[in-house]
Amino acid sequence: MRIAMIGTGYVGLVSGACFSEFGHHVTCVDKDASKIARLEKGEIPIYEPGLDKLVADNVQDHRLDFTTTLADSVKTADAVFIAVGTPTRRGDGHADLSYVYAAAKEIADAIDGYTVVVTKSTVPVGTGREVAKIIAETRQDLKEGTDFDVVSNPEFLREGSAINDFMRPDRVVIGTNSEKARQTMQRLYRPLYLIETPIVFTQLETSEMIKYAANTFLAAKITFINEIADLCEKVGADVHDVAKGIGLDGRIGRKFLHPGPGYGGSCFPKDTLALVKTAQDYHAPLRIIETVVDINDSRKKAMAQRIIEACGGSVAEKTIALLGLTFKPNTDDMRDSPSLDIVPALLSAGAKVRAFDPEGMQEAQKLLPAIDYGKNAYETMEEADALVIVTEWNEFRALDLERVKDLLKTPLMIDLRNIYNPEEMVSLGFDYSCIGRPLRALMPQD
Ligand code: UDX
């Protein structure tokens, strides 16, 4: 089949490349000519493990190509995916749908023959209906159900494991009221159908709601364990064992129970806010998610205070080394990263900050210009007064701890991702602090 993918960001480029890997012909469209030019040269504008090879292989097999002109690819497409950004609208938290609606207009102008228009971007409930209205208004000659249908097909891709999440999803969700569109989507996802991937067919609005409900639930789950971690610190419990003890309950599940500095990224912060706004607009407020948003925002800000307290109450004139700046490992994405709250607070408390991140520094330098950047973890911590683990990149999980101790002015480590073992750190002579775990011996002394 032929697909036009509108938008070549984290979602559009991964989805387009994966669909071409399924054997479909995909044309990825973007208004940004420089981005398209880089893609045509085989350069990938984002860091996503495995994406460069996936794109190169499919370009070579002539199943994947790139263009800035939307019309040609839409004319010949069986399905047109809208995978443009839906950022938080400045000031009020709603999702900005201007890019989605602009794409809908351009697609309408180019439709030639029955076409399924698919919203892949995360869009508020009701957006699919609005897209259908825009198409019908733009082209009075087009009839919904005959010349086009609109389908919701949200993505559940995690940055850093997006290709795997596309190729081996827990489920595919498809929202449509049209049997014809359902047939088209079933053919598009045939390779997953063949490996018996659960495909949830439902209504348009329900599919849009599933996406938001999933992300806000995950954000709430993370916030839950973060608050439990804070209570564990007070009562001397170990949040890792609490997470294990509750996670083994099939109704709770073991994933997304890792305490940390608060969630970031391009999705949870914007999707929680957008759903809260939708709910308020419909006078059915989501008070739990409103609280999750508040807790997470204040948690990221509180992390700097945690660092200051670990440094004896002041970081004035001290050098603080940070390992990790991105919102999670295996990405270069800095959006809503906890480091964007931590660094400014440390600087305003008089600290000098040095940081290293394996993939995020190019992006970070635009956002955090007032700090120094190291070439690697060890160089960054040299002569620092404290070392803070902000993002749990694998290369930070097995540092030579004796060497770390020698390099630091004082053996002080604040581990915001609990990647080290408190007992071991204390026995090595570190002044070690982490999230939700007691520092005294974890097992009763026999
Ligand atoms: C998320 C959803 O997982 C994905 O399904 C959706 O399509 C897009 O948003 P992503 O934002 O890429 O994916 O990353 P994810 O791995 O979900 O982590 C989000 C944030 O939560 C990160 O800041 C991460 O550090 C944090 N997190 C995650 C925790 O603090 N604890 C956890 O246990 C898991």
Description:
This protein is of the alpha/beta class. The protein has two domains: 2-202, NAD(P)-binding Rossmann-like Domain (Rossmann fold, 3-Layer(aba) Sandwich); 204-446, Rossmann fold (3-Layer(aba) Sandwich). The chain has 18 helices and 14 strands. Helix 5 (98-110) runs parallel beside helix 6 and helix 13 packs across helix 14 (339-348). The longest helix is centred in the middle third of the chain and has 32 residues, at 204-235. The chain starts with a strand and ends in a 13-residue tail after the last strand. It binds uridine-5'-diphosphate-xylopyranose. Residues 155-159, 215, 218, 222, 256-258, 260, 263-265, 267-268, 327-328 line the site of uridine-5'-diphosphate-xylopyranose (UDX).
Unreliable segments of 5+ consecutive residues? 442-446
For the record, the count of structural domains works out to 2
Percentage of residues assigned to helices: 40-55%
What global shape is seen? elongated
Q: Which whole number gives the mean pLDDT?
A: 96
Characterize the largest beta sheet: strand count, sense, and whether it forms a barrel.
6 strands, parallel
CATH homologous superfamily grouping of the largest domain: NAD(P)-binding Rossmann-like Domain
CATH class of the largest domain: Alpha Beta
Q: Would you report the number of β strands?
A: 14
For the biggest β-sheet, the strand order reads 3-2-1-4-5-6
Distance, first to last CA: 67 Å
Strand content: 5-15%
Q: Helical region count?
A: 18
CATH third-tier fold name of the largest domain: Rossmann fold
Ligand roster: uridine-5'-diphosphate-xylopyranose
Give me the Rg, rounded. 24 Å
Report the structural category.
Answer: alpha/beta
Please identify, by name, the CATH architecture of the largest domain. Answer: 3-Layer(aba) Sandwich
